[in-house]
Design brief:
Blueprint (H helix, E strand, L loop, with lengths): L1 E5 L2 E6 L2 E5 L4 H5 L4 H11 L2 E2 L15 E6 L3 H10 L6 H9 L4 E6 L4 E2 L4 E2 L8 E2 L2 E7 L5 E9 L1 E2 H6 L4 H5 L5 E8 L10 E8 L2 E9 L7 H9 L8 E4 L17 E6 L3 E7 L1
Helix pairs in contact: 3-4
This protein binds 2,5-dioxopentanoic acid and magnesium ion.
Magnesium ion binds next to strand 5.
């Protein structure tokens, strides 16, 4: 089942039918215990609507924070080691990849986040910018993985590579995070066989495409959640981007007008244009 946040309220999709939900705020709806069973009950009585008008979609976030984990895939580790070798930072990435404690950082508030079909941004003081296609967890206020969405952890690689202490500037700025188009809720945890793919279009041309299976991730999803929630409480739940396994070649940077499409099987496709 999929939950959409729209200008017309909350819509639930199940087996190609769309249901209008009333009487719930977004925050309280997505934090219902046992979300899959709750949705199954809701759609028994909710009115069916004609379909989903994509132009009404909002990012599936209201009061939640977005956090992110990094260096969870080998490809991410080698890319960061390479970009930061002149700054002597490479060793940090090698060590965090093998350490018990994962890298977890604060990514964005809802105000800095965009949804499906909205514009993402690259920093004006950066010359090397990439999308990071990431499976993104919705962690409810009981610290349980209750749903999944698609995330784009837009990043400035030159700023991050210059000094690892610049990470917050490379990662967190206006419209640096995109999530959506929905929160997908499954009866069972998401399959590790899902493929996370990205395509970047410049005009008619695909200038980069790639992807990875979730099974390539070094860490377990509950392990990331456990570290995030150890000393942080989330009364309205939170989102956790789980790291990228796909990094474009070092001579690639996004430019204004590029369209980034990230797809994850069983969740959908998140499309954003670079402002
Ligand atoms: O350590 C830098 C950021 C890593 C990251 O965002 C990722 O691996 O996805
Ligand atoms: Mg990332």
């Amino acid at each position: 089942m999929k939950i959409y946040n729209t200008t017309k309220g909350i819509i639930v999709e199940n087996e190609a039918k769309f249901y209008q939900i009333s009487d719930f705020s977004w925050d309280s709806f997505i934090n219902q215990p046992d979300l899959f069973s709750f949705l199954s009950e809701q759609i028994k009585t909710a009115p069916i609507v004609a379909g989903l008008d994509e132009s009404t979609l909002l990012a599936p976030i209201v009061s939640q924070e977005i956090w992110a984990s990094g260096v969870t895939y080998l490809r991410s580790k080698t890319a960061r080691m390479e970009e930061s070798k002149d700054a002597g930072g490479g060793d940090f990435y090698d060590r965090v990849y093998d350490a018990d404690r994962p890298e977890i950082f604060f990514k964005a508030t809802a105000a800095r986040t965009v949804g499906h079909l909205e514009n993402i941004r690259i920093r004006k003081d950066s010359k090397w910018n990439v999308p990071e296609p990431e499976l993104t967890l919705f962690v409810n206020n009981q610290n349980q993985i209750a749903g999944y969405t698609i995330g784009n952890d837009v990043s400035s690689r030159d700023i991050e590579g210059e000094n690892p202490l610049y990470l917050p500037q490379a990662k967190s700025y206006d419209k640096s995070a995109a999530i959506g188009p929905c929160i997908a809720v499954f009866k069972e945890p998401i399959s590790k066989e899902v493929f996370i793919s990205v395509e970047i279009l410049r005009g008619e041309k695909t200038v980069f495409s790639g992807g990875t299976k979730l099974s390539q991730m070094k860490r377990e999803l509950p392990e990331l959640v456990e570290f995030l929630t150890r000393e942080c409480s989330f009364p309205q739940g939170c989102f956790l981007m789980t790291g990228t396994g796909t990094v474009p070649p070092d001579d690639f940077t996004m430019i204004s007008g590029d369209i980034v499409k990230i797809s994850i099987e069983s969740i959908g496709t998140l499309i954003n244009t670079v402002e």
